[in-house]
């Protein structure tokens, strides 16, 4: 197995607030890693460091052999290879669905409009929204918007996808469709790091579950071990609250 992402002793402070306190994390090619942990424990900060939306305070993050903590690294290139999906979709509301999906491939990868639209159609099919190509973003439900956001990220042909609580802002009846798209991606071998409170998804799809608390990884393992036989008292406590 090859490491896709290698994080060593990652620390992130906001002033006096020590948010990440030394994270070591290896993500293998094709691996699905699910990160769980209480609110405020640093999960989003960790994901945001992985594609340099945040600069680490110290430590190293190597993605595909590129040290992205090096200020000289070509961050735009790194980001093209790492797709990110946020809790609040972050779509461009004034653009159509197809414009949202084709914008980055046209602007950043130099694709023609026709190439980008052909791919957008395919991606919309894979997320179950083939009929929404020309739709306005505002006309879509939250679950549909999130699936467009996934299609938009995939349009850059990333080889890693980061998901930060992608279903937390959705009405319950929308959650299944979004998780279904993510499951399909995992089956196709996408390397994924997913922060979620959907423990069912973690049990079913994760190769490895990581419990983060107070800026540290306190426990990690296969979903079976984490959910059926948690060792750390803080993980036991967390699972008692969420399960
Ligand atoms: P989680 O995603 O696990 O809920 P976060 O990574 O969002 O946790 O936040 C962890 C801590 O970092 C919180 O105390 C939060 O207030 C702080 N924090 C996150 N982002 C920023 C920021 N941009 N500036 C200052 N503090 C931040
Ligand atoms: Mg968060």
TrEMBL record:
UniProt keyword annotations, A-Z: ATP-binding, Nucleotide-binding, Transport
SUPFAM superfamilies: P-loop containing nucleoside triphosphate hydrolases (SSF52540)
Segment forming the signal sequence: none
Domain (ABC transporter): residue spans on this chain: 5-239
Pfam (any one): ABC_tran
Molecular function terms, GO-annotated: ABC-type amino acid transporter activity; ATP binding; ATP hydrolysis activity
PANTHER family documented for this protein: AMINO ACID IMPORT ATP-BINDING PROTEIN, ARGININE TRANSPORT ATP-BINDING PROTEIN ARTM
Protein name: Phosphonate-transporting ATPase
């Amino acid at each position: 197995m090859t490491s896709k992402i290698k994080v060593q002793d990652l620390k992130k402070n906001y002033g006096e607030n020590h948010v990440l306190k030394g994270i070591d994390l290896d993500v293998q090619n094709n691996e699905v890693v699910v990160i769980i942990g209480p609110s405020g424990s640093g999960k989003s900060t960790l994901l945001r460091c992985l594609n340099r939306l945040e600069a680490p305070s110290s430590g190293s993050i190597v993605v595909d052999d590129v040290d992205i903590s090096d200020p000289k690294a070509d961050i735009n290139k790194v980001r093209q290879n790492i797709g990110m999906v946020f809790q609040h979709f972050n779509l461009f509301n004034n653009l159509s669905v197809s414009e949202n999906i084709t914008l980055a491939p046209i602007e950043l990868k130099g694709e023609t409009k026709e190439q980008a639209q052909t791919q957008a159609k395919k991606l919309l099919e894979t997320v179950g929204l083939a009929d929404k190509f020309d739709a306005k973003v505002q006309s879509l439900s939250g679950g549909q918007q999130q699936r467009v956001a996934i299609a938009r990220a995939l349009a850059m042909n990333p080889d890693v996808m980061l998901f930060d609580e992608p279903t937390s802002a959705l009405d319950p009846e929308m959650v299944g469709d979004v998780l279904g798209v993510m499951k399909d991606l995992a089956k196709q071998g996408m390397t994924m790091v997913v922060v979620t409170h959907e423990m069912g998804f973690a049990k079913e799809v994760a190769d490895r579950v990581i419990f983060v608390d107070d800026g540290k990884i306190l426990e990690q393992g296969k979903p079976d071990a984490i959910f059926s036989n948690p060792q750390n008292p803080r993980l036991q406590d967390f699972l008692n609250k969420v399960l």
